Amino acid sequence: MSISRRSFLKGLLASSGAALVGPGLLQVAHAATAEEAGKWKVSGSHWGAFRARVYAGKVQEIKPFNVDKYPTDMLNGIKGIIYSPSRIRYPMVRYEWYLNRDKSDTTKRGDNRFIRVTWDEAITLFHDELERMQTQYGPWALHAGSTGWRQTGQFHACGNHMARAIAMHGYSVNKVGDYSTGAGQTIMPYVLGTTEVYAQGSSWPVILKESKTIILWADDLVKNLQVGWNCETHESFEYLEQLKDKIAKKEIRVISIDPVVTKTQDYLDCEHQYINPQTDVPFMLAMAHTLYKEELYDKKFIDTYALGFEEFVPYLLGETKDKVEKTPEWASAICGIKADDIREFARLLVKQRTQIMVGWSIQRQQHGEQPYWMAAVLATMMGQIGLPGGGISYSHHYSSVGVSSTGAAGPGGFPRNPDKPDNRIHKNQDFNGYSSTIPVARWVDCILEPGKKIQANGATITLPDVKMMVFSGCNPWHHHQDRNNMKKAFHKLETVVSIDFTWTATCRFSDIVLPACTQWERNDLDLYGSYSARGVIAMHKLVDPLFQSKTDFEIFALLAGKFGQQQDYTRGKTEMQWVEELYNDCATANKAGFEMPDFNTFWKEGFVDFGKGEDWVRQADFREDPEINALGTPSGFIEIFSRKIDRYGYKECQGHPMWFEKSERSHGGPGSDKHPIWLQSCHPNKRLHSQMCDSQQFRETYTVKGREPIYLNAQDAQHRGIKSGDLVRVFNLRGQLLAGAVISKNYPTGVARIEEGAWYAPIDESIGSLDTYGDPNTLTQDIPTSELAQATSANTCQVEYEKFTGKVPAVTAFNGPNEVA
Ligand code: PGD
Ligand code: PGD
Ligand code: 6MO
């Protein structure tokens, strides 16, 4: 049903033999100077590669890697992660659970009272609980939830370690999709034939040469390209610099369609098209209406490359469904853009070569499938799909998409699955009538409503009765919506295990907590530049694992040892033997096109550079011959109307894109009378989600009175007697939090932002408890996008706020557990 980032990279691996670019391009990064050589070590991160100076057993200094010409200042937060006061030092068990196990008082989960245990005791307890699930219940009772941003490093990718060890013990509930693009990756295969969100986009040099207009639709490139799925190179910033230059020379027009003035808009000094939040579909529909009425759309392109326009047009004209004609006047009242401006915008789109780039946040809202589908329909009507500098992309803000791929293979990872499918201790695959796989964001529903049947992407899912959860490499008490609803669910869980290096709220709400080490306390290697496949980077261990922490490899090898499978789990190999093997396999896969030195040379130098790839135009092959190069849709053509989706008979995702009112919306929409402010929880400028929030000094560069900032419109704030620097209580019927006011001219009235990933810090474990730091998911709602994707709708969220005048509570997030002696 979905393509994970992992399988994208597998694809890269598979395609490498066929798509080699140019001759072997081996370059080794400038070797460190003789003086540095003994002291500086190369390593990597989602924020980029770097060299670290290590002495006296401590990381003293970090400087960007020489290939990275645009390093992010997040590198300054790395030391603070390693030496954070939030580090998990020892295996810990929730005190009440320690005493009473599965009969524990689960309403006390989250009271943060823990007792220290030995590694052996902790692993025994973990193993005993896995055993109990398999023998007392069955595979349906266990969900090992790893969906998230494990640190970089292919060998230590922690989700793989957890998945392999747990699978060697028995079966468990699985998941599909992810929180980033759940709606997008589900709808787009029906429309354009691939997820689009994880697809390589047209190369920047082509766009810079050919595009006359670029539309950034909810797309904050400058903020979001700081981070990459693999070790990031930041090469896209070179092109953004050139784009800025072309805007200044009036060679390219760039328009950002966003309620907020983004970092990208500020940087590029480009144009802004304000839009009311969550109303992109009416704007798009009205532009389609204009193109249709003024006969500006590309009929020939539609005839040749698309299906279903005839079914869509009657909806546009108000002849079917809601019987409302989608005129600019109709849209204007919803989206807040003047009707004439909508018409002008539509004409601009077809006047010259236009590249649309869509970000992901507009599909993390209720009915998030619709803006994605409708944007594709608009691009189809424009007729520029497959042309250099034209068409539509859903990924240019992500992991250096648009930097040409070298076509080289990246290193593979530690295997997720048992080597022999039947060497599980427990072979029971009977899910007791429950589904074995669920849409990723519906796990809380499983706990709260086991047995409930839901629709998902054409299938009926029966939610399993999950009793035990294991989390590694993800932080659900950051990434999931509606904390107080989660508390109710956690009251029903018997056992929760977390493996992390830092004491997140997920650890606080767990029963068994195991200390992993950070990526800088282990040896590894990673692809340098995710989509560009620029090279392979060595990740040298900088310091030994702190306190009693261990690598995930060691932790799950210990677990496998408890059921006699350690040798099979490790294949009898050490960390360094694995790293060397992954490197050698990568060298073999690249043999025909890329020369790679032997492992020892690579490890010493720290980097193999594959150079640069060739420019490329997305969907050009389809445009050239739509039959030979058919899309992956059921018909092979662009599907404006999907028979398959139509046949599912869903209410909130029908046969063609449509406008659906949201359950909550600002600017006069539902719920805005009592909670008038739309809370957007965009991705952080100075963090990767919740990662780095524990980096104390770095965090203090942006916090307000020790709290997460809330960005506010001046008029809204003034109306409530609030000024920058004040503490603010933000609330709705779901929860309440404290945050620090930052008034910014970039925010329009009715809009506020708290960046996702702020650590949840409740005063206590009770439902409704005030969050003292400012996690926006204290306020968001946990509803699916629709019956199609069942994805997160985090950005459909209305709140109110007021100046906080009570006794100011301390922030409870960052000091780890309260240890019971
Ligand atoms: P991270 O903060 O990256 O968030 O959610 P995700 O859970 O991925 O959490 C990763 C956790 O894994 C951290 O606690 C980290 O310490 C731990 N970890 C990292 N590496 C390792 C390792 O090697 N070993 C072990 N054992 N642990 C490790 C991200 C998710 O949040 C995403 S991708 C999106 S797009 C969503 N975005 C939003 C949003 O826009 N708005 C809201 N309100 N909510 C969101 N949630 C989603
Ligand atoms: P956001 O920052 O949430 O980014 O990428 P995504 O594109 O989802 O939102 C982008 C823009 O959408 C914002 O400017 C916001 O105002 C706008 N927007 C929100 N709602 C609407 C709307 O209704 N209409 C319109 N027109 N605009 C709207 C997220 C991607 O970033 C993901 S999923 C991950 S996992 C990575 N995470 C990070 C990260 O945590 N930190 C950084 N620095 N970079 C990242 N890159 C990746
Ligand atoms: Mo994401």
UniProtKB/TrEMBL annotation:
Main location: periplasm
UniProt keywords, alphabetically: Metal-binding, Molybdenum, Oxidoreductase, Periplasm, Signal
Signal peptide coordinates: 1-21
Cross-referenced Pfam families: Molybdopterin (PF00384), Molybdopterin_N (PF18364), Molydop_binding (PF01568)
Cofactor names: Mo-bis(molybdopterin guanine dinucleotide)
Domain Molybdopterin oxidoreductase N-terminal: 43-83
Residue ranges of every copy of the Molybdopterin oxidoreductase domain listed in the record: 87-561
Gene3D superfamilies, sorted: 2.40.40.20, 3.40.50.740, Dimethylsulfoxide Reductase, domain 2 (3.40.228.10), Dimethylsulfoxide Reductase, domain 3 (3.90.55.10)
PTM notes: Exported by the Tat system.
InterPro entries: Asp_de-COase-like_dom_sf (IPR009010), Molybdopterin_N (IPR041460), MoPterin_dinucl-bd_dom (IPR006657), Mopterin_OxRdtase (IPR006656), Mopterin_OxRdtase_prok_CS (IPR006655), Prok_Mopterin_Oxidored (IPR050612), TAT_signal (IPR006311), TAT_signal_bac_arc (IPR019546)
Domain Molybdopterin dinucleotide-binding, residue spans: 678-797
Transmembrane segments: none
Cofactor note: Binds 1 molybdenum-bis(molybdopterin guanine dinucleotide) (Mo-bis-MGD) cofactor per subunit.
EC number: 1.7.2.3
Compartments, as annotated in UniProt: Periplasm
Catalytic activity of the protein: trimethylamine + 2 Fe(III)-[cytochrome c] + H2O = trimethylamine N-oxide + 2 Fe(II)-[cytochrome c] + 3 H(+)
Biological role: Reduces trimethylamine-N-oxide (TMAO) into trimethylamine; an anaerobic reaction coupled to energy-yielding reactions.
Family stated for the protein in its record: Belongs to the prokaryotic molybdopterin-containing oxidoreductase family.
PANTHER family: TRIMETHYLAMINE-N-OXIDE REDUCTASE (PTHR43742), TRIMETHYLAMINE-N-OXIDE REDUCTASE 1 (PTHR43742:SF4)
UniProt protein name: Trimethylamine-N-oxide reductase
